[in-house]
Amino acid sequence: MSDVQEMTPYQMLGGEGVVRWLTDRFYDIMDSDPAAAPLRAMHPADLAGSRQKLFMFLSGWLGGPSLFVEAFGHPRLRMRHMPFAVDEAARDQWMSCMRQAVDELICEDWLKARLLAAFYDTADFMRNQ
């Protein structure tokens, strides 16, 4: 087994700093892209808390420290997103922002594909409309 096969996505990306960059870039895109305006409207005016929670979640989700679970318990993603109308359009807007952030960050096509497939599965699972 190669070293890459034994690494978590968190490690493959480069750890905390890169996950933080990915999170911040995602929110910067969402905050500035007119196509993501309906998604942005679901968030508070100040994105600091959203940024921190997504960073904490992604840390554990990608195989790094379980920061979100340690602070808030089980993510219960669907339950936490129930107050919002998450339809295909919202999913696609979220994915568009994340795809752009991933494209800017990751050079390896195989890693991009792996991450984007996992992000899509999770984003699609959030749909409640």
Automatic annotation (TrEMBL):
Source organism superkingdom: Bacteria
Name of the molecule in the record: Hemoglobin
Signal peptide residues on this chain, from the entry's feature table: none
InterPro entries the UniProt entry points to: GlbO/GLB3-like, Globin-like_sf, Globin/Proto, Hemoglobin_trunc
Swiss-Prot/TrEMBL keywords: Heme, Iron, Metal-binding, Transport
Gene3D superfamilies attached to this UniProt entry: Globins
Pfam families, per database record: Bac_globin
Family from the record: Belongs to the truncated hemoglobin family. Group II subfamily.
Organism in which the protein naturally occurs: Paludibacterium purpuratum
An MF annotation (GO) of this entry: oxygen carrier activity
